[in-house]
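Anyone opening a protein record will find just a pair of labelled lines. With that in mind, the following record should read easily:
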Amino acid sequence: MRKINEQRINEVYEYITHVQYTESRTPSIREISKACNISGSAGALRAVRCLEERGMISRTYSQDKKVISIPNNLELGKTAPVSIIGTCACGEPITAVENVVATVALPVEIFGSEKHFILYAKGNSMIKKGIFDGDLMVVRVQNTANAGDVVIARVNDDEATAKILAIKNGKYYLKPANDEVDEMGKKIYEDIYPEGEWSILGVVDNVIHNPNNGII
């Protein structure tokens, strides 16, 4: 029976978790061999199998390869890079800004592992959905949504707005979440019935409040 090299096992485990935490992925057997100074892939594979048998890691199997997967206990502390790409109107549509302002790391445990982007909210048409001027809207990238979802929609070719997706008489439209009226009793924030082609860029699934708003 081959003697287990506990030092090697620990080094492989530490390398796998390091790559998972810092790069949000798992290394290949070849990468493990090189990083841990193991001659050939067989030794690295033995160490990985040992870790799997001990329940310290898990692996997924596809038709042509075996891939080390992230165990549930290692999801804690994992982050994913998300780009802040500008400002989005919460009122009248404004020209969409798609230049990356900054990139931040968000915890996967809270925000999920789906692809996201972040937009600054501008305006007050979505306050009944808890979105205030200056807040950060964390948007899950997708081009479909359900009625009632808060979406980021592109209208008039290059304008983006945050609104509730609603449907009336079989036709979708964009609805604000603020019933405020002016002194004449007219709604300040009106429904938007996009003309021509329009699209959904994503669904707002989290909001990070601007501390200057006094919202906790």
Summary: The radius of gyration is 24 Å. Residues 6-74 form a domain with the Arc Repressor Mutant, subunit A fold (CATH 1.10.10.10). DSSP finds four helices and eleven strands in the chain.
